[in-house]
Every structure is written in structure tokens, then in C-alpha cells.
Amino acid sequence: MIYEFKSRATGSVIMTKPVAEWILQIIGKEPGRTGVITVAQMPGAVDALNRAIAQEKEELRAERRAMESVGPAPGAASDAEKNDTENDPYPVSLAQRAFPFIDLLQEAHRAGKDITWGV
Fold first, then answer.
1. pLDDT-derived band of residue 69, with 50, 70 and 90 as boundaries?
2. DSSP string, the chain
3. Distance CA 58, CA 54 (A)
4. Where residue 85 falls among pLDDT bands split at 50, 70, 90?
5. What are phi and psi of 99, to 5 degrees?
6. What is the distance between the alpha carbons of residues 119 and 102, in angstroms, rounded to a whole number?
7. Cβ neighbourhood burial of 24 (10 Å; 0-12, 13-18, 19+)
8. Are 112 and 26 within 8 A, CB to CB?
9. What confidence tens digit (pLDDT) does each residue in 89-102 have?
10. Stretch 51-62: mean pLDDT, rounded?
């Protein structure tokens, strides 16, 4: 399933259901077939996303520091084995996923236009 976020001030931002619902949860909106983010709610939504992004970055830094301090485990996978996408140490971050949505929020806010979504 796909979510399409629209504003009369911008183009659309389209997301898969899991990503859209993750972002909606972060900004305090109930996922559903339709919804609206009012102009008044947009600054708070941007702040909530920026806080979540900062938290994720800090958690990733801490995880990497912990992995570096331990060092490779005996019999650790070779570089060729690490190419498996399930073991990708650099998954797509919240910052990468949320950037277009944050841009949508900021542009719609500047224009004074609500954002709506539909599934």
C-alpha cells in the first residue's frame, strides 16, 4: 500500500505504508486512509522529525562505537560475505526517508497550505 501526501503549495510525496506510518507516528498523527496536517501543526511535526533523526544518529554512533571497541569476532565474515543486504550495516536512515517529507512540511507551511494524505 502507498501513502500520497499532497499540498496545494507543492508536489506530492509518495511513501510505502511502513515508512509513512512510521513518520506519521513520529509527528503524532494517526495513520489511516486519509488525514490532514494543518499549517499550525507543521512546525511541531518538523521539530519531532528532527528530534527523531538526531536520536537515530546518536544511537547509530553508539552502536558503531560499541562494535569498534569489541573488534571483529573470531571467524567474522569476509568482505564478500558482508555484501548480503540483510547484513547491511548502513540501512536507509530516517533522515534519508524523512527529508522529502520535511521539505513538503516546510514549503506548505511557508505557503500557508495544509497537507492531506490518502492511501
1. confident
2. -EEEEEETTS--EEEEHHHHHHHHHHTT---SSEEEE-GGGHHHHHHHHHHHHHHHHHHHHHHHHHHHHH-PPTTPPPTTGGG-GGG-SSPPPHHHHHHHHHHHHHHHHHHT--EEEE-
3. 6
4. very low
5. -50, -50
6. 19
7. buried
8. no
9. 667 899 999 999 99
10. 92
Query: Which residues fall within 8 angstroms of residue 26, CB to CB, at 6 or more apart?
Result: 48, 49, 52
Q: Output the pLDDT for position 71.
A: 65
Measured between alpha carbons, how far is 14 from 101 in angstroms, rounded to an integer? 9
Angle among Cα 2, 94, 6 to the nearest 5 degrees reads: 40
| Backbone torsion region of residue 88, taken as left when φ is above 0, otherwise alpha when ψ lies between -120 and 50, otherwise beta | beta
Categorize the per-residue pLDDT at 68 as very low, low, confident or very high, splitting at 50, 70 and 90.
confident
Give the pLDDT mean for 37-53: 98
Q: Are 112 and 10 spatial neighbours (Cβ–Cβ below 8 Å)?
A: no
| Amino acid (one-letter) located at 30 | E
